[in-house]
Amino acid sequence: MSTTLSQTKIAFVGAGSMAEAIIRGLIETKVAAPQNIYVMNRSDQDRLAFLRSEYGLQATSDPLTKETFLRVADVVVLCMKPKDVENAFAELQPLLNEQQLLVSVIAGLSIAKTEALLQTNMPIVRTMPNTSSTIGLGATGMSFSSKVNATFKQVATQMFEAVGTVTIVEEEKLEILTGVSGSGPAYVYYFMEAMIKAGIEGGLSAEDAHQLTLQTVLGAAHMVQLTQENPAELRRKVTSPNGATQASIEALDRFQFSEAISQAVFRSAERAKEMGEQIAAPSPVVKSS
Ligand SMILES: NC(=O)C1=CN([C@@H]2O[C@H](COP(=O)(O)OP(=O)(O)OC[C@H]3O[C@@H](n4cnc5c(N)ncnc54)[C@H](O)[C@@H]3O)[C@@H](O)[C@H]2O)C=CC1
Ligand SMILES: O=C(O)[C@@H]1CCC=N1
Question: What are the residue boundaries of the Pyrroline-5-carboxylate reductase dimerisation domain, all occurrences included (predicted)?
Fold first, then answer.
C-alpha cells in the first residue's frame, strides 16, 4: 500500500453524518481520490445516490457489491451506531483480512472488544472525531492497537488530519476525550442557544442576537488560538473589577456553571463506556472434541 492516501482504497461501513464528514474532508483536501472511496449502508438508496452525486465516490447497499468493496479496500472505516454493531460485524467478519487497516469511530467500543467480536488480529485504530470535521475543523482523538505499524499510523493520522487536528492518546483516555471534544460541539451550541434566547428576551432582534452570539464565540475561540493565552487569563481581561462581567460571572457561579460543564463531560465519558459495554460480548467459541 502507498504511504500517501492518493492510491489507498478506503471503504466506509455506514453512510451517516460521521462518514460524510470524513469523506468530505478527504476529498476537499485531495488527500484521497473519490474513485478510491467506497461507502455502504443497510438500505437507504437516496442517501447513497446523494453521496455518489455530491462526491463522485462509489456507494452501495447491495450485498455482493459490498463484498467486493470490502475485499479490495486497504482501509475499512466502521461508521455505524453502537446499536448496529452486532449485525454489521456479523456481516463484516468473514470479509476482512489482516493486511487491511480497521479504523473505528464507534463511541465506547474498545479495541479488545472489536478484536473479539470480529475474531481478528488485524491492526485497529480507535478514533473519536467530532462533527466539526465536516468543515475541516474537527478534533479527533486516536489510539492504536499493538498491531498498527508505522505506515498504518501515518495513514490514519493523515486521514483525520484532512478534517482537523489529531490527538493521540492511550486508549483508556478516549472516553474522557469523548466527553471533551466528541460531545463538546453540543455544549457550545447549547451555550449559544441560551445566549441567543436571553438576548431576545432582553429585547434584541432574533437576527442580532444570533449574529452577536456567533461572532462572540468565534472571536473568543480565535483569541485563545491566536494569543495562546490561557482562557482564564483572557477571561480576567474582560472582567473589570466590580463591573458588569464580574457580576455576570458571579451569577454563573451561583448556578454552578463550572460544575455543570464538568458533570456533562464526565457523564458523556460514562455513557460512551456504557454504550460500548452494552454491545453484546462475543459468544465463547465451543470447541468440538
Ligand atoms: N455524530 C457525532 O458527533 C459522532 C459520532 N461518532 C460515532 O460515529 C458513529 C456513526 O455516527 P453517525 O454518523 O452520527 O450515525 P448515523 O446514524 O448518521 O449513520 C450511521 C450509518 O450506519 C449505517 N448502518 C447501520 N447498520 C449498518 C450495517 N449493518 N451495515 C452497514 N451500514 C450500517 C446506517 O445506514 C447509517 O448510514 C457512531 O458509532 C458514533 O458513536 C463519533 C464521534 C462523533
Ligand atoms: O453522542 C454520541 O454518542 C456521539 C459520540 C460523541 C458525539 N456523538
Answer: 171-275
* Within-domain flag for 32: yes
36 pocket-lining for ligand 2 (C-beta < 6 Å): no
Query: Are 108 and 207 within one domain?
Result: no
CA dist., res. 37 & res. 59, Å (int): 8
Q: With a 6 A CB cut-off, is 133 part of the ligand 2 pocket?
A: no
pLDDT per position as a tens digit, 244-273: 999 999 999 999 999 999 999 999 999 999
Task: Measure the CA–CA gap between 289 and 287, rounded to whole angstroms.
Answer: 6
Expressed in angstroms and rounded, the spacing between residue 276 Cα and the centre of ligand 2 is 12
Q: Which residues, at least 6 apart from 49, have a Cβ–Cβ distance to it below 8 Å?
A: 59
The residue from 145, 178, 211 where one domain ends is 178
Looking at the structure, do residues 264 and 213 belong to the same domain, yes or no? yes
Which ipTM score applies to this complex? 0.98
What are the pLDDT digits (tens) for 217-230?
A: 999 999 999 999 99
Q: Ligand 2 centre from 16 Cα, in Å?
A: 13
Rounded to the nearest whole angstrom, what is the distance from the C-alpha of residue 211 to the centroid of ligand 1? 32
Query: How many domains is the chain built from?
Result: 2
